[in-house]
Amino acid sequence: MHDLCCIGHITLDKIVTPKNTVHMAGGTAFYFSHAIKHFNDIDYSLITALAESEMKEVDKLRSEGIDVAVMPSKHSVYFENIYGENQDNRTQRVLAKADPFTVDYLKDIQAKIIHLGSLLADDFSLDVVKYMAEKGLVSADSQGYLREVRDKKVYAVDWTEKEEALKYIHFLKANEHEMEVLTGHDDVVGAALKMYEWGVKEVLITLGSLGSVIYDGKTFHKIPAYKPREVVDATGCGDTYMTGYLYQRAKGASIDEAGRFAAAMSTIKIEASGPFSGSKEDVIHCMETAEQKFPEI
Predict the structure, then answer these.
(1) Mean pLDDT, to the nearest integer, of 129-137?
(2) If you ran DSSP here, which 8-state letter would residue 119 be given?
(3) Phi and psi dihedrals of 166, rounded to 5?
(4) Overall number of domains in the chain
(5) In what order do the strands lie in the sheet with 111-117?
(6) Are 19 and 129 in contact (CB under 8 A)?
(7) Which is more confident, 86 or 129?
(8) Cα of 35 vs its chain's centroid, Å
(9) Whole domain around residue 244: which residue ranges?
(10) Following DSSP, what letter does each residue of 136-156 receive, concatenated?
(11) How far is residue 10's CA from residue 29's CA, in Å, rounded to a whole number?
(12) Does 138 map to a domain?
């Protein structure tokens, strides 16, 4: 029985910013695993799917102590992310797709918390979500469910099976755009209430540099954003946030404690290219010293 398990594709990413163009691995599975490897007090496992050509990324993770299981796939997911001066704005294309995860492959998983790192709408079927809910508390990021690929372009779509799937999801993250697509509400309170009504037990709404809000059916927890020293690369910030939050919740931290830790991890990540590479001490230092901005709801 693991404390925490992440299931998701490791991708090939082409990241274009006004300063430079970088080719690197990516995806929820990549950012989550590389962030959590810095915390040695949790039993973590990754299940991914990629082509043989990208197995070197799995070898790296294993060499750093991460337990990784690989479901074979003909292709790896290949994303192209283009950012403008404002890192909140991103243009995206998908140049290749990997195989979706199957119930058969996931039968041996046992974990307290299972994070589904969906990147595209068909990564995890409703059957997989239901099945995982029998194994542990299911966590999901809504962004993948709201992305459909047609002719390599990524289109924003609604999550067609959301009302059924969300009955089985304990933790759900959405940003301000995703919450509106999901619920029809452009206000945090209305969107959070609707997602909770559908069955989500902890609704996490991230608002970028304005902070985040977590709703548990009783309280709207206002989580501050910590001001970074410099904004370098926002790719993977949402995944880093979820890493910090689920890590802390798995360790028994309160929602507020977990949210603040997650926000500080995201701040440290945005200050450099690539995945989070700080320590727990760095996160605590950020929480204690960085300028804070609380969300307004």
Answers:
(1) 97
(2) -
(3) -70, -15
(4) 1
(5) 67-72, 44-50, 2-8, 111-117, 137-141, 171-175, 202-206, 212-215, 220-223
(6) no
(7) 129
(8) 11
(9) 1-291
(10) SEEEEEHHHHTEEEETTEEEE
(11) 6
(12) yes
- d(CA 164, CA 213) in angstroms, rounded, equals 24
Residue 297 in any domain: the answer is no
Task: Give the chain's length.
Answer: 297
pTM exceeds cut of 0.85? yes
3-state secondary structure 89-117: CEEEEEEECCCCCCCHHHCCCCEEEEEEE
The answer to whether position 296 is within a domain reads no
Check if the beta carbon of residue 142 is closer than 8 Å to that of residue 32: no
Mean pLDDT, residues 93-115: 93
pLDDT digits (tens, 9 = 90+) for 42-71: 999 999 998 888 899 999 999 999 999 999
- Tokens representing residue 52 in the block: 């043989």
Residue 125 within a domain = yes
What integer is the mean pLDDT of 30-46?
Answer: 96
